[in-house]
Structure formats: structure tokens, C-alpha cells
Amino acid sequence: MELTKLIKERRSVHQFEDKPVSVELISELLDTAVWVPNHRMTQPWRFVSIQGEGRRKLADIVREFRAAKESDPVKAQEIGQKLYDKFMSVPMFLAVVLQVNDNSVIAEEDYASASCLIHNFGLLAWEQGIGMVWETYPLLQLASFREAFGVKSDERIIGSLHVGYPGKVPAPQQRIPGSERLTVME
């Protein structure tokens, strides 16, 4: 697919088909996605995939986390179950885990580089007919969620990628052309 078309047609997908995604294909896509600018070549990332029955642990954590925020027990159960079902409908979770760097300049460079990596992955996946959405919800800070992904104390999850074959592709949202935001100084 032509790059311009691929960039403009990619969408964040929230609804997936009930169809597993090949770990081998995801691994291949990641092998290409890592070819991003990475000042100092720290390559501070690693990836954790959770799929199949492994999703139940995440779904249970989400259900308990959300239900605990609701004072009405009936409503808590309804909301918790809704989120549980939503998490179980995602074929694969792919956590992008970043090594924390105490140097703020390097930490920012690493985050920027890893963000490029996630975008590369999303484009490569879209080209293969796979959709995803990059989630940065508060769960990423939750000890039980981090533990489910095997995240160490000197690491952070910068994105929980929900990955699968699209069940529904959202319509495009208008973008302000970059040329309208361009300032030229001579």
C-alpha cells in the first residue's frame, strides 16, 4: 500500500472480530517497527503480549478496579461486567514497556522514540488488515495490572495496544492541514 494512503486510511479500532492474531505476525511487525530514530540507541523497549485465556486476568483486574469506584453494588457489578466483557472482546493486548531513565532528557528522547515505534507498528498492522488502538488509561499505573504484564519497578507501560482484526472501522475524523499550522521564518 502507498505510504500516503496508508497514513490517511489507518484508524484506531475499538471493536474487533472474534479471531486470534498470530504472535508470529506481531513479532515480524515489531521487528520492522523498531527501526525508528533513537538518539543514543538506548532501545529501551520491550513488549508483552497477552491473548487467549490470559486476557481473563486483565479483565478481572479491570472489573474489580472499576467496580471499586462505584458505591451502588448493583451498578458496580453492571459497570464491572461491561468492562470485563469489553476487555475479553480484545483478541490481543500488547504492552509497550519502557525502561525508565533517571536522566529527563534521555527519558523524553526514549518516550518519543517509543511513540514512533508504536505508530510504525500501527501502520504495519493496518497494512496487514489488523487494527489497534493505543490506550494510556490509569490502569497502566495500577500495581496488579503492571504485575499481570510482568513490569518491573524500573519500567513503565507507555501503551496498552488493543490489537485484532477490525470488527468495525470508524469513519475518518477531519484533520487541520499541517500547512495551516506552518510558520515560516526567514
Automatic annotation (TrEMBL):
The keyword NAD applies. Its cofactor is FMN. Keywords: Flavoprotein, FMN, NAD, NADP, Oxidoreductase. Pfam families: Nitroreductase. It comes from Paenibacillus alba. It comes from the Bacteria. Belongs to the nitroreductase family. The lineage of its organism: Bacteria, Bacillati, Bacillota, Bacilli, Bacillales. Transmembrane segments: none annotated. CDD domains: YdjA-like. Residues 7-165 form the Nitroreductase domain. It is an enzyme of class 1 (oxidoreductase). This is Putative NAD(P)H nitroreductase. Its EC number is 1.-.-.-. SUPFAM superfamilies: FMN-dependent nitroreductase-like.
